[in-house]
Write a structure and sequence with these properties.
Layout lengths: L2 H24 L5 H18 L4 H7 L2 H20 L1 H4 L1
Helix pairs in contact: 2-4
Length: 88
Amino acid sequence: MRKDTNNFIKSAEYDLNTAEFMLKLGNIQLPLELFNFMAKINNASIVTRYPEDFLKILEAYPKSVAEEYLSNTKEIHECLKKHKTLKK
């Protein structure tokens, strides 16, 4: 396996484990739609971090998709800020 690929996989696994730990620790119940979005945006990070063809990225993630992703990310952020366990 290429070194950069291996590094990316290890980084992604770390990020996922951290997110899962935080959800369990805080017993945070996100709406299923937002939880599914977190998986979706994590998968998107692969192609946006390491684009082989920038034009393909623009086609796959037009402004409307970017706006949707931003809106969902802000919604998750607000849910986390309001969670009483995370305020301590």
